Amino acid sequence: MEKVQKPVDRRVLKTKRAIRNAFAKLMVEKDINDITVMELSETADINRKTFYNYYSGVYQVVEDIENDIISSYERLLGDVQFRESMNAPYQLFERFSQLINMDPEFFGYLLTMNGNIALITRIMTLIKDKTREKMTSQLAIEDYKADIMIDFVLSGMLSVYQHWFSSDRSVPSEEVAQIISTMSFSGINGMLNGI
User: Which option is the CATH number for 10-193: 1.20.1290.10, 3.40.50.720, 1.10.357.10, 1.10.246.90?
Assistant: First the structure.
């Protein structure tokens, strides 16, 4: 008999989101090793006991953030067909925008932190691994070529989204995704031909 999974309580989701956002906000200001449970709780507007109901410490918050982002990314990647995406690449980049739009406040903090690039690097490495795994399972491409392509696209995309979050965000994220997809698959000539 298959076990039915209980839906997660909205209050739990709200509290965990507050903790994640507080963590990301604090990481903009200080190194991860200097963040305490007390200031994390204060920033999230919860008490320490509530924090310990969900996490054993700051590093478990980091692990939960990484796992949640990768799990969400895997779901968004789920039905992507890379061969078809070569002709219509926007689908891939739209999925990445969907990931960011799930929690724009959190990603805004995450992508604008200056000194704490280790967390972003770990997350991008995990995203790269999942993308390579999916891509190489569908396309006959050598691993090193897949790595170069994915590094190129993810590095550019990360830079664009960091700039976007640091700006007034007047350009919708969907339009940003469209420009990134054109640049990634058609290069500068693809952009200039559309002008």
Answer: 1.10.357.10
